[in-house]
Design brief:
Blueprint: E1 17-20, H1 23-33, H2 46-56, E2 65-74, E3 83-96, E4 99-109, E5 115-126, E6 133-135, E7 152-157, H3 162-170, H4 180-185, H5 195-209, E8 217-224, E9 233-241, E10 244-250, E11 256-265
Antiparallel strand pairs: 1-3, 2-5, 2-8, 3-4, 3-6, 4-5, 7-9, 8-11, 9-10, 10-11
Helix pairs in contact: 1-3
């Protein structure tokens, strides 16, 4: 089967990029998502993720891509007031009948070279089927839903201006979150909330339920199963799972928008 992807980019790591973790940047992100969230760890690499992803596929296919999954492996908190460096690479391209996934890995280090976090960003090119099986895929998430009733549920109203505020705070200016016309052209009913904004909100709620601070969070991951619109309500549901927590998020109609969520804590 022919395909439009550039295979030579797989496992070709970018040069290092520096990012200064300023108090203003941390504050802006917290204000956008309703409070401090460990998902701020994605911000230093936001531009770089887009840069490496754009080399893997033709520009016209970028209108068909959605954020499928995010996996954050957190070793140390980002040092506020200091510079960090990030590198990224497309590490896998995997196809199926409904489309093709591109897995992007990110590594963030402090000034001493110590690893602060690793990320696996999974992009899904809808309607671009291939038989590709190149490189590695992101770590697996649970395939079965949690058992029993949730330990806690918490609702959060997504204000109509959340996409614009999150774009400014995160650096993610994908027009499907900002322009109704572009969003509709991509097959959406209108602008949608960034998946990472929903995850940032859910992460705060999970950590509060676990009575744990950001420094105890070792891994945070989820699948973005459906879009959610600004003005809707995100309800995060949490289950205890041994030393970890499972979670998901549903919209006002009860449709799952965040699935297979996992939060692993250090002792």
């Amino acid at each position: 089967m022919t395909h439009p992807f550039e295979l030579s980019v797989v496992d070709r790591w970018s040069d290092e990029r520096a990012f200064e973790v300023t108090p203003d940047a941390v504050r802006a992100y917290s204000e956008a998502v309703g409070g401090p969230s460990p998902v701020f760890a994605v911000v230093p690499a936001m531009d770089l993720v887009f840069a490496v992803a754009e080399v893997a596929a033709p520009a016209d296919l970028r209108t068909q891509v959605v954020h499928g999954q995010q996996d954050l492996i957190l070793h140390k908190p980002l040092p506020v007031g200091e510079k960090v460096t990030v590198r990224a690479a497309v590490v896998g391209l995997h196809g199926k009948r409904s489309g093709t996934t591109a897995t992007i890995q990110v590594r963030t280090r402090d000034a001493a070279g110590d690893l602060l976090n690793e990320q696996y960003v999974t992009e899904f090119y809808r309607g671009v089927p291939t038989d590709l099986a190149v490189g590695v895929a992101a770590p697996r998430l649970p395939s079965e839903p949690p058992a029993g009733p949730p330990l806690r549920e918490a609702a959060y109203h997504l204000t109509p201006d959340l996409p614009s505020r999150y774009a400014a705070a995160s650096g993610d200016h994908n027009p499907i979150h900002l322009d109704d016309e572009v969003a509709r052209a991509a097959g959406l009913p209108g602008v949608i909330v960034h998946g990472l904004a929903s995850l940032a909100i859910a992460a705060r709620i999970v950590l509060a339920a676990a009575d744990a601070g950001d420094s105890r969070l070792a891994r945070l991951s989820c699948r973005f199963t459906r879009p959610i619109a600004p003005g809707d309500t995100l309800t995060t549901r949490i289950w205890a799972d041994g030393t970890a927590y499972r979670f998901d998020g549903v919209d006002g109609a009860g449709t799952t928008v965040l699935g297979a969520g996992v939060a692993e804590l250090r002792p």
